[in-house]
Amino acid sequence: MVGLTGARLLALVMAAVLLWSASAMAGSETVPVLGQFGENRYAATEAMRRLQGILDLVYGEAALQPEYVSVPFNRAVQQVQVQPDSCLSAVTRTPETESQFLWLFPVTQTRVIVIVAAPPHFPDTDVSLETLRRNQADGIVSLDGAGQVVLQKADIRHDSRPAADTVVKMVAAGRVRYGVLLAVTFDLLDAADKSAVRVLGDLQVQTIWHACNTAFPPQQADRLKAAHGRVQRDGRLGQLYAGFGLAQPRP
């Protein structure tokens, strides 16, 4: 029997998810899901395509239909906090954010990394929150999202940008000393975009969750949690993660 290539396996898995979701969600209830969908950079669209595949599977199993709304991360957080029937596609779960959302299930685990210019404008050899705090006057830029949350929690002064390639360009040009973003986003950037920077190291490993407004309808929340449990137990979720080349996150 001829083995499946990674690309062919992923295509088959995604096709199965789409067919399952289409049949399961016919005539189902709609849930607004806010996130950075529809970005025109490959890194954003590829990462969000994977996330949508995961959400489509779970929502389809729950007979709910996600209505994807493209909103920058910071605005998405603000809108979900005031819109009772809405959910946030993915957000970092921390002690500081614990009470801000209703946490449904983990969607991915990733590293928050720090990048610097290559060749360096500064003699950096190690990375830590203390290093960033000590050198914050030289400039730090973070991609909107998980890295930004880490810096805010540590009370480290920084700017933020909605696009990963902008963060990379600012670091490469020496406009800031450090860039902070998710490894999964950085890895998906074009090689040409990354050639002028290097990864200094990991700042933190985080689990990213699908979360909703704290007043999200309890029956829908229960259906989504139960659906996530079913597709996890029967292997469909694991197959999807394997097709994406990702490790399945644990709560």
Draw up the topology in text.
Layout: H1 6-24, E1 29-35, H2 42-61, E2 64-70, H3 73-82, E3 87-92, E4 102-117, H4 129-134, E5 140-143, H5 146-153, E6 159-161, H6 164-172, E7 178-182, H7 183-187, H8 191-194, E8 197-212, H9 218-233, H10 236-244
Parallel strand pairs: 1-2, 1-3, 5-6, 5-7
Antiparallel strand pairs: 3-8, 4-7, 4-8
Helix pairs in contact: 1-2, 1-10, 2-9, 2-10
Organism: Novispirillum itersonii (Aquaspirillum itersonii)
Keywords: Signal
Protein name: Solute-binding protein family 3/N-terminal domain-containing protein
Short description:
The chain is of the alpha/beta class and 251 residues long. The protein has 10 helices and 8 strands.
Overall pLDDT confidence: 86
* Backbone shape: elongated
- Using only C-alpha atoms, the radius of gyration works out to 19 Å
The CATH architecture of the largest domain: 3-Layer(aba) Sandwich
Total beta strand runs = 8
CATH superfamily of the largest domain: Periplasmic binding protein-like II
Classification by helices and strands: alpha/beta
Write out the strand line-up for the largest beta sheet, numbering strands in chain order.
Answer: 2-1-3-8-4-7-5-6
Largest beta sheet, briefly?
8 strands, mixed
H and E string: HEHEHEEHEHEHEHHEHH
CATH third-tier fold name of the largest domain: D-Maltodextrin-Binding Protein, domain 2
Intertermini distance:
37 Å
Proportion of helical residues: 40-55%
Low-confidence stretches: 20-26
CATH class of the largest domain: Alpha Beta
Keywords: Signal
Protein name: Solute-binding protein family 3/N-terminal domain-containing protein
Signal peptide: 1-26
